[in-house]
């Protein structure tokens, strides 16, 4: 890691004005130059960093969203930046993949500084992550809200459609590859494979619920929130899924308060 050593200023008439030393007061010896750029980019004058979580969530991201790995990397930088006093996750997302969501939630939980989740709409994986925040703000409106605490998989069998179009699709496997690509949209799914899928879905759902219970400990007022339903801002606060209604500016102000 690069260590930046500032020249010592001696008191008296020969003291060198700090503005002539070309020293950036925001430079943190714990951060590289590129990391400092990231911290300075997301941090407001108040010392609160605002990170955007937009669109469908996944490990690598897509055209309209940053990947979970990128957001986790930025959180790590902000956690080590002495000039960042708190963070706000500005979130508008329908959720996303199970892959990497737990790691992202852990990064939020272990941020080490106050971190506020603010959202007009946070479903599924997005709420999984926000549930680990210090507090959650929902935008004051009639629509939107948070929830969808659950897990699903959508399977589409195209065999009949392809047959009607005149296609006769056959899947040929090498010897010893009898378990390869058993979920393919062409062949019927065996009872054993369906049972394995159900076991995996149940495990993912239990993990999701466990994280929400950890992050919202003492706040959730009813187990009804774990069925996969979405809740309006008013109901989400009533049931303990969120803490208060408010604007992004109010969430930032709250983050400043919690940092003191």
Q: What would you say this structure looks like, in words?
A:
The protein is built from 8 helices and 9 strands. It is α/β, with parallel strands linked by helices. Strands 1, 4, 5, 6, 7, 8 and 9 form a 7-stranded mixed sheet that branches. The chain has a two-stranded antiparallel sheet with strand order 2-3. A hairpin with a 2-residue loop joins strand 2 (61-62) and strand 3. Helix 2 (68-80) runs parallel beside helix 3 (101-109). The radius of gyration is 24 Å and the shape is globular. Residues 1-25 have low confidence and may be disordered.
Please tally the β strands and state the result.
9
SSE class:
alpha/beta
Q: Helix count, per DSSP?
A: 8
Rg result: 24 Å
Low-confidence stretches: 1-25
**DSSP strand content:** 15-25%
What percent of the residues sit in helical stretches (DSSP H or I)?
A: 25-40%
User: What is the terminal-to-terminal distance?
Assistant: 29 Å
Rough outline: globular
Mean pLDDT over the full residue set:
90
Biggest β-sheet strands, sense, barrel: 7 strands, mixed
The arrangement of helices and strands along the chain is HEEEHEHEHEEHHEHEH
């Amino acid at each position: 890691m690069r260590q930046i050593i500032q020249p010592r200023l001696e008191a008296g008439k020969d003291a060198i004005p700090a503005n002539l030393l070309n020293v950036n007061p925001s430079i943190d010896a714990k951060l590289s130059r590129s990391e400092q750029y990231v911290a300075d980019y997301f941090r407001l004058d108040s010392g609160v960093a605002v990170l955007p979580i937009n669109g469908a969530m996944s490990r690598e991201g897509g055209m309209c969203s940053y990947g979970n790995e990128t957001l986790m990397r930025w959180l790590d930088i902000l956690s080590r930046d002495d000039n960042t006093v708190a963070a706000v996750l500005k979130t508008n997302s329908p959720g996303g993949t199970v892959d990497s969501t737990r790691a992202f939630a852990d990064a939020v939980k272990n941020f080490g500084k106050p971190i506020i989740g603010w959202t007009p709409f946070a479903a599924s994986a997005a709420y999984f992550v926000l549930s680990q925040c210090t507090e959650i703000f929902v935008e004051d409106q009639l629509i939107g809200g948070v929830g969808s605490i659950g897990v699903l998989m959508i399977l589409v069998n195209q065999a009949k459609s392809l047959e009607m179009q005149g296609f006769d699709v056959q899947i040929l496997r090498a010897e010893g590859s009898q378990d390869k690509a058993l979920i393919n949209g062409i062949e019927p799914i065996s009872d054993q494979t369906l049972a394995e899928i159900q076991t995996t879905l149940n495990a993912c759902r239990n993990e999701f619920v466990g994280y929400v219970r950890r992050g919202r400990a003492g706040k959730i007022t009813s187990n009804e929130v774990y069925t996969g339903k979405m809740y309006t801002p008013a109901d989400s606060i009533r049931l303990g899924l969120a803490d208060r209604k408010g604007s992004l500016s109010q969430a930032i102000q709250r983050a400043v308060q919690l940092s003191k």
